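Listing S7. Sequence submitted for prediction.
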Amino acid sequence: MKTVGIYSGSFNPIHHGHVMLANYLVEFSDLDELWFVVSPQNPLKQTADLLNDKERLKMVQLAVGDDPRFRVSDVEMHLPTPSYTINTLTVLSEQYPDCRFVFICGMDSLQNLHHWREYQKILDNYRLLVFPREGYDGGALAHHPSVTILKTPILEISSTFIRQCVKEGRDVRHFMPEKAFRYMDENHLYG
C-alpha cells in the first residue's frame, strides 16, 4: 500500500516555501508521494483575494512539473463548497483504496483543528504530519497519537506577502517556482 501525503491549500499563489516543504516531506518522512490538493474555498478564511480555481491549479501544475514524487489534484473542486478536509479524505480513500492517506498541516491548523468539521473523525482515521509555524505549539492536540510533529525548516514566506508585493509592483520572481511566476506575470494576476 502506497503512503500518500495530502497537502491541501489555496496556493494563492504557490511559492517556494510550499514546494520546499513538499520536497522535505517526501525525503524525510515515510511518504511515497505527496499530492497538492488545490482548495476552492477554506471555510475558515476570507475569499476576497482568492484567484479563480483554474488559474491557481495551473500555477501549481507548473510549479510541480513532472516530478514523479508529486501529483496535483482538483478533487475539492468537484466537492460541495465550502470544502471540508474530512470530505476530501473520505472521497480520496474511496477512490484510491490502494493508498494510505496522511494529512499534512501546519501547527496553526493543528491548534485550530477542534473547530474543523468532524475533526475527531480525521484524528481517528488518518495520521497527521504537522510542520512548525512561528508562534504556534499545536495546542491540546500536539500530543495526540495520530499526530507527528516534524522539525521542518521554517520559511517566512507567504502567499499574502507575494500578493501584496505584486499589488505594489515589486518583483517576486525568486519567491516562486519559475514557470508559476511566469504564468502569473504574463497573465497579470494579483496586480
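Caption to Listing S7: primary sequence and predicted C-alpha cells for the chain studied. The CA atoms of residues 114 and 120 lie 8 Å apart. DSSP finds seven helices and six strands in the chain.
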